[in-house]
Write a structure and sequence with these properties.
five-stranded mixed sheet, alpha/beta, two-stranded antiparallel ribbon, 2 domains, 636 residues
């Protein structure tokens, strides 16, 4: 019945009057295959744990259909319909289901603690601010939800600009587009209010699964969640660990790292007693799924897996063959980021050109707080990113565990710490990675740090996981983590509360955007200042293109190399238009509007040119401080 319901959901669709239709779509396209694959691999721990461990593979089997749909520019409705077979195929594949022991009934105290932690985490995420990247993703999702050609062109800059290579095979955006298509919610509401809570709970459950796998019992899974929340809630600042969960969980890179990566590590630990063929099959599907969601995160996790396998081989751990096979099969999906990497060489300014140097300067300035630079030379990721007591203490302990026990569990947490140090804080390797991947990617290697998982691994290494007399050890681990982070709480709360409204949907601007959407036609151009209008408008009005978006990183970098000059001119035109001090719309302003065939002009009411614009064109949408003029509706 579940398979039939999933097929009907995808084939017929969900009425858009249902705000939670996106949940049914996700259940059909991801949860159903995950449940089937989890049973096929015989993952123990009950239906929830089994389904969670199947999630990376579910993304993996979705990707081929999505890649075909993207190549042919099919709409989400078409490829969503084509995807009805995935659940059926995964279900039929269970001709052999590995035997699974019946899970023991959950214990009351760890279960209640887990529920309390999940509610606390979800509530904090719901109340937190959002990141500007939410609106960039929203532009793609709005286009996809509007049934516009899937990933055919840039959702902001116009149909003459091809889609940015990294987004052309982005399964995450495609899935969110299908979900938005099936929901009556506006895309910003879905992205900022509904999805964050849902994904935060899934991310914390992923932490629970890996913690339980490392520690050997549910209480250690709950402890891992508690330590992670103590770590995240006291580090909400930009680029700090907690910022990922609290402010940015809907972004593909953070969903991949916080949801899929822990499940991949946990599944490999659970597969260590199965055949190497099954390990290889899991590695290939999970690698493909992670690469389809976010290729850079895939590379980071691949580095973690590689270091895990290498350390296991060096220390001659019993499960070293499993780790090596898992790492090699996972690396088979490397073709996905390689495709994106080579396609990236066809967009943006040519290396060494003045435009490229200016873009590099902008990127470097935006990452200065994350990098350690001396005498204009990049040395490593900035040590301040990891300078908090819990991070330093747990990182040190993760390596020290090898002195007590050397197995797959202890080598996992130790290798993740060592990989972070080797790749992010190494003056010999880090600059090379910055040149290869871009300086904005370097700080992401700190995501590998296994802070929530060190306590469960320590319980295994010290042999306390199964001792009844030490049943309170998981609770002690959480209390100690909170105590260590206690001095950071006042600063963390000030930073968190100070950014609660950051990049949230503006209730005063939303009606204005919806009114523009009512008048807009495909191909219309608008000119709007980046903040607060330009960054938000594409998520509400998919038909309208903007002259420029989020400066050089969002404009010239997205243009094909042979047309970068057009992108630079559009950036300059936008800046010139909104820095004009003329009391009226002068010839330069009108020339910009004519040259780019701009239909909608957004002006602040305090702009000296507002009165002149009001005498020329009709206002089609307005708020307390802003007005949108329609040049196709001149004043009589």
């Amino acid at each position: 019945m579940a398979v039939a319901a999933g097929a009907v959901t995808c084939l017929v669709g969900v009425p858009r009057s249902q705000p939670y239709g996106w949940i049914l779509v996700f259940a059909a396209l991801i949860v159903l295959p995950a449940m089937s694959l989890g049973r096929f691999f015989g993952f123990e721990g009950g239906i929830v744990v089994s389904t969670m461990l199947g999630l990376p593979m579910a993304f993996g089997i979705q990707f081929p259909l999505f890649a075909i749909a993207t190549t042919m520019h099919w709409s989400p409705a078409v490829w969503g319909t084509a995807a009805i077979g995935l659940g059926l195929c995964a279900y039929i594949a269970q001709t052999y289901v590995a035997p699974v022991k019946k899970p023991s009934p959950p214990k009351l105290v760890p279960t209640v603690m887990l529920i309390v932690l999940l509610v606390a985490g979800a509530a904090t995420v719901f109340l937190s601010g959002r990141d500007s990247d939410d609106w960039a993703y929203g532009a793609y999702i709005a286009d996809s939800a509007a049934n516009m050609p899937l990933m055919a062109s840039d959702p902001v800059l116009g149909t003459d600009v091809p889609v940015f290579p990294r987004q052309s095979l982005n399964l995450w955006l495609g899935l969110l587009g299908v979900g938005a298509r099936a929901s009556s919610l506006e895309v910003p509401v879905l992205l900022q209010d509904h999805l964050p809570v849902f994904l935060a709970i899934i991310a914390l459950l992923s932490t629970y699964v890996l913690g339980k796998t490392l520690g050997g019992r549910p209480a250690w899974g709950t402890a891992a969640v508690g330590v992670q929340l103590a770590w995240f809630l006291t580090t909400p600042q930009h680029s700090a660990p907690g910022n990922a969960l609290l402010f940015r969980i809907t972004e593909d890179k953070f969903a991949a790292m916080l949801i899929l990566a822990p499940l991949i590590f946990a599944a490999i630990l659970k597969l260590r007693h199965q055949s190497l063929k099954r390990v290889a099959l899991f590695g290939m599907l999970a690698g493909l799924g992670l690469a389809a969601v976010h290729p850079i995160t895939y590379l980071i996790v691949m580095a973690g897996l590689g270091s895990w396998a290498a350390l296991g081989f060096i220390l001659r751990v019993e499960e070293r063959k499993v780790l090596i096979v898992a790492g090699l099969s996972f690396a088979a999906a490397l073709v996905v980021p390689l495709i994106g990497y080579f396609r990236l060489q066809t967009v943006g300014p040519a290396p060494g050109s003045p435009d490229a140097l200016e873009l590099s300067s902008v990127q470097l300035r935006s990452n200065m707080s994350r990098l350690w630079i001396r005498h204009s030379k990049l040395l490593s990721v900035h040590p301040l990113l990891v300078m908090n007591p819990l991070t330093l203490g747990m990182s040190s302990l993760s390596v020290m565990l090898l002195l007590f026990r050397r197995n797959a569990r202890t080598t996992l947490v130790a290798s993740l710490t060592l990989a972070t140090v080797l790749l992010a804080f190494n003056p010999l390797i880090t600059p090379f990675l910055g040149h290869l991947l871009g300086v904005g990617m370097l700080w992401r290697f700190t995501w590998l740090l296994p802070i929530p998982y060190v306590a469960p691994a320590a319980a295994d290494a010290l042999g306390v996981a199964d001792r009844k007399q030490l049943a309170a050890a998981p609770l002690v681990a959480v209390v100690l983590a909170l105590a260590v982070q206690m001095p950071l709480i006042p600063t963390a709360y000030a930073d968190w509360s100070g950014t609660r409204s950051q990049f949230r949907a503006d209730v005063e601007l939303t009606p204005m955007f919806l009114e523009i959407n009512r008048h807009a036609q495909p191909g219309d151009f608008a000119i709007a200042p980046n903040h607060p209008i330009g960054v938000r408008l594409p998520s509400y009005v998919p038909e309208v293109s903007l002259l420029a978006f989020r400066g050089p990183q969002g404009t010239r970098w997205h243009f094909p190399r042979e047309h970068v000059d057009d992108g630079v001119r559009r950036e300059e035109a936008l800046e010139q238009f909104y820095t004009s001090t003329s009391p009226m719309l002068d010839q330069d302003d009108l020339t910009i509007l004519e040259d780019y065939n701009v239909r909608f002009v957004v002006l602040e009411r305090s702009d000296d040119r507002f009165a002149d614009a009001s005498s020329r064109w009709s206002i089609v949408a307005e708020s307390a401080n802003w007005a949108v003029f329609d040049r196709d509706a001149p004043r009589p």
